[in-house]
Amino acid sequence: MKRTIAVSLFAAGMAMAGGALAQAAVGQAAPAFSGTDATGKPVSLDQFKGKYVVLEWVNPECPFVKKHYDSGNMPSVQKYAADKGVVWLSVSTSADGDRAGKSAAINEWVKAKSAMPAATIMDTGGAIGKAYGARTTPHMYLIDPSGKLVYAGAIDSKPTANPADIKTSTNYVIQAIDESLAGKPVSQAVTKAYGCSVKYG
């Protein structure tokens, strides 16, 4: 009996440890969150009830992020989403540090790249990232108007840092948006995200 209890407690402990970065479950309610964007304004998922919402984990220094921004691909996907009435929220997760300095830097970067997120949330301390299990930059999620997570994973099907691969890849986010808006189930609802590791400290 004691051995069974010990094993059960160990298993529970491992589940909790893994749960800190357990990916939010597609088909289930997306984790609620609130935070502050890079301009100092409060942002919460509740603000966008009734709309599709894309979450994009971002790090301007990451080569995989640069692939999609330096080429203009991510801003064009953001515009595509916006034209469809989809809210795009970028999330910058960091363990700690100069929040004001990072906010200013990311605002400049967003402007320089002609990016179009509705907001860039400064996830200092990583609470939002941990709730979603965000592991890489980029790591993408699509939430439907009912608040259900319908896609989680990579931006596209070519897990490289080479911009030349964008043209021949399947953009999973556009695919998920189009299928959802057409009333269809997302055909590839979970894919393996690729990119630089999100730093949680």
Explain the overall architecture.
The chain is 33% helix and 19% strand. With 201 residues, the protein is an alpha/beta fold. The protein has a single domain (24-197), classed as Glutaredoxin. The strands form three sheets. A five-stranded mixed beta sheet has the order 5-4-3-7-8. It has a two-stranded antiparallel sheet with strand order 1-2. Strands 6-9 form a two-stranded antiparallel sheet. The radius of gyration is 17 Å and the shape is globular. It starts with a helix and ends with a strand. InterPro entries: AhpC/TSA (IPR000866), PRX-like1 (IPR047262), Thioredoxin-like_sf (IPR036249), Thioredoxin_domain (IPR013766).
Mean of the pLDDT scores?
A: 89
Count every helix, treating DSSP H or I runs of 4 or more residues as helices. 6
Strand element count: 9
- Biggest beta sheet summary: 5 strands, mixed
pLDDT < 50 stretches: 1-20
The structural class is: alpha/beta
CATH topology description: Glutaredoxin
Succession of helices and strands:
HEEEHHEHEHEEEHE
**Percent helix range:** 25-40%
Shape: globular
Secondary-structure arrangement, i.e. CATH architecture: 3-Layer(aba) Sandwich
- For the record, what is the CATH homologous superfamily label? Glutaredoxin
Q: What proportion strand?
A: 15-25%
Question: What is the CATH class name?
Answer: Alpha Beta
Radius of gyration: 17 Å
Characteristics:
signal, disordered N terminus, globular, Redoxin domain-containing protein, Glutaredoxin, five-stranded mixed sheet, 6 helices, single chain, 9 strands, Thioredoxin-like_sf, AhpC/TSA, 201 residues, alpha/beta, PRX-like1
